[in-house]
Amino acid sequence: MKTKNKKWLYWIVGGIIVLAAVWYFFIRAEEVKIQLETVKPEIGEISNSITATGTVQPVDTVAVGTQVSGIIKKTYVDFNSTVKKGQLLATLDPDLLQFQSEQIKANLQNAKSNLSYNEINFNRQSQLYKVGAISKADFDNATNQYNAARAQVSSVNAQLSTANKNLSLTNIYSPIDGTVLNRNVSEGQTVASSFSTPTLFSIAKDLTKMQVRASVDEADIGNVKVGQKATFTVDAFPDEIFKGEVSEVRLHPTVSSNVVNYTTIINADNSGLKLKPGMTANITIYTQVLENVMKVPTAATGFSPDSLIIKKYKVNSPFAHGKKGKGKGKGKKQNTDTSGKNNNAGVWIIGKDSTISRKKIKTGMDNDTEIQVISGLNTTDNIITGYKVLSKKSSGNASKSPFMPQRRGGGNNKNSGGGGGQR
Model-level pTM? Predict the structure, then answer.
């Protein structure tokens, strides 16, 4: 009888242990742990900026053409050749123009000979007219022939000058010091300048100085001014940031797909010759820059303690609320804007005794990531930007299926504080 009672006792104790284990591991509510995210105010630079795209171009590019038609006889430079002002680039076949010059020279000799004859005849007719040997009509005819002969000589002289000038234009010289970007002709090619001047070479003046032609949207162009700093990157060097300065904002608009853009010129140094003409640039123009100012993350002004914070910490502020589910660190952003005017806002700080209190601050520039603090904070203040909810079940590096439903607010390092991210 005693053995049966002992067995029942063992079964009862075992059942109690099992029920206690089930309750402890599966039923009891898990203690929620939270971790506050804090930062301290920093002294540094804060800026507003706009972004745009554009192309890298030389500061000055000259298209070298020809004023006469002919066949390219010889080229002396090629792509990427460095040239000096006055250097011979190419020559056209001068034979045809040379023949024209020789023909005009012969015409000039004939005109001079005719002038000499008419001058002698004019002098003779003048003497005869004085003594009354000829009529006034004969004298006027001799005078007219003499004047026409003189005009003919002047006309042929002008034709010869034109022919000689055209002959000299068969030699193509560089108008500037620079680098040949493009060569559009080859030896033996015929060029015709009857209707428009053909471009033979494109020469960049100085590749150590480049400019970026940025297309700025009409919504942003109002903040862009000459002298503002700019940075840009190119695909060839994605990890390198190039610096420049706005030198010109052109008033002529360009419209593409109903989008109005304005060309903005940014000068940049290219001493290392890394930038090449035609590269696509991703540009950031800093429209407003403040240096040596106190700043905090914008998320700090949007944080507000909710019921979880109030349960775990002592909140020393009449503005705190304890409604469940209200906020979780996502409080509505205070009265701030990006105009740079002074505004009132509030942030929450945690003291050494883990007491949370609210401080009113006066803010200035806001670039949606950082906000300027004009007054109300010290660099030693620990400002709360949000919090993380931690739990034992979700701690560790155990992988989870992305298709499994997750507890709201659970998960290791899950940023349920909300206030720690950017807007």
Answer: 0.68
